[in-house]
Amino acid sequence: MDIKFNHIESLCASEPKLSNSTEAHKNPIFASSTFKFESIEEGIEIFQSQPGKHVYTRYGNPGTESVAQKIADLETFDTQTKGYGLLTSSGMAALYVALTAVTETGNLLITQGNLYGGTTELLHKIITKHGIQVQILDLSDEFALETALKSREDINKTILIETPANPTLQCLNLKSICKLAKTYHAKIVVDNTFATPILQRPFNFGADAVIHSTTKYIHGHGLSTGGVVICAEEDLFKKAWEIMKLVGCNSNPYDAWLINTGMKTLSLRMTHQSNNALYIAQKLQSHPKIPKVNYPGLKSHETHAIATEQMNLYGAMLSFSVGSTLDDAMSFCNRLQYCSLAPSLGETDTMVLHPASMSHLRVPAEIRNQYGITDNLIRLSVGLEHPDDILADIEQAIAIL
Ligand SMILES: *Cc1c(COP(=O)(O)O)cnc(C)c1O
């Protein structure tokens, strides 16, 4: 059966198609590191046509490949792009593979200052070692971006975008940035971890590659670490596959199986958690001890209009300031009774992070303040609970301030 669904939630709930047929209702875990050949001739043929049939799990496995293709189908749903997916060992591995596949020594990589912390470190400590220059820009400033793209015509450029961005949920205009990139023949890589393909599909705007930390919403249950690279062109996919194979940052049959199980409810979770986040953001906005709430779904958010244009819902991440000082934020965190203090996001339960002391600890205070990451800012990854229960926990924790 090869049904083409008209609705993305049906694709989420479905079992991805395996390249070889099996009788099981649910795909089994292909716990094998090696695949055997019928004959030496078949072995030679299979080796020559890589990536293709299965040889060795570091090269590919029926479980990892079918799940990678399912995510590629989700990211390209209702777009003009076909999409080729590759599962990796983590979101960081997905970024490394995607960025080294699109660039070559001597290229320029243009990106924003408010990336996921690990991504900024990866760029400065590893990607630059490949002879790639990294330029940090305010990507919402089209004039600055165009100037950078126009400069030094002799070198190829790639733009790396993360939207919404951590932790102020700044949204960047995918349509206008991709249009500028096309004009100057620059490549575009988008980290779509916060939005997922349920809320935003960068291939609609002409992205060359999309990556995810599947550790977050795609898996959604906090039981697996992983990443995915989705390429718009087969040539780019083949380069990415080779890097993954040789670096050995492939996923494995167990994580692929967990990712797929979690993904069945991706559409339900994103919808419910986004609605919860909007409800909570609206309530917090009128709280006297909360000076600021950052949520793209609020009219007061500086990039509300961009989010409305390019996202289906506003996502399940928000941030807000409590009281006025670092001490206020710390005592707020310590008084929370239900919400977990944990450095991740995108799971079924609500998680709280204090950016100034956790994710952005190594960022100097003046730069933190420039990006709106004040000492009293709290980040919330809103879960599936009843939003009034989350609010009650926040309100009791804030009461003493
Ligand atoms: C978590 C995260 C990553 C890194 O993913 P890992 O799975 O932890 O390697 C990259 N980008 C974003 C936006 C993230 O939230």
Layout: helices, strands, pairs:
Blueprint: H1 8-13, H2 40-48, H3 62-75, E1 84-88, H4 91-102, E2 108-111, H5 117-125, E3 133-136, H6 142-150, E4 157-162, H7 174-183, E5 187-191, H8 196-199, E6 209-213, E7 227-231, H9 234-247, H10 253-263, H11 266-285, E8 293-294, H12 304-310, E9 317-321, H13 326-335, E10 340-341, E11 351-353, H14 365-370, E12 377-381, H15 387-398
Parallel strand pairs: 2-3, 2-4, 4-5, 5-6, 10-11
Antiparallel strand pairs: 1-7, 6-7, 8-9, 9-12, 11-12
Helix pairs in contact: 3-10, 4-9, 6-7, 11-15, 13-15
Bound molecules: pyridoxal-5'-phosphate (PLP).
Pyridoxal-5'-phosphate (PLP) binds near residues 191 and 213.
Short description:
It contains 15 helices and twelve strands. α3 runs parallel beside α10, α6 (142-150) runs parallel beside α7 and α11 packs parallel to α15.
Roughly what is the average pLDDT, rounded to an integer?
94
Tertiary shape = globular
Query: Oligomerization state of this entry?
Result: single chain
Q: Rg, please?
A: 22 Å
Q: What structural class results from the helix and strand content?
A: alpha/beta
Spatial separation of the terminal alpha carbons: 60 Å
Q: Number of DSSP strands?
A: 12
- What is the helix/strand order? HHHEHEHEHEHEHEEHHHEHEHEEHEH
Proportion of residues in β-strands: 5-15%
Heteromolecules bound:
pyridoxal-5'-phosphate
Q: Helix count?
A: 15
| Spatial order of strands in the largest sheet | 1-7-6-5-4-2-3
Helix content: 25-40%
Largest sheet: 7 strands, mixed
Low-confidence stretches: none
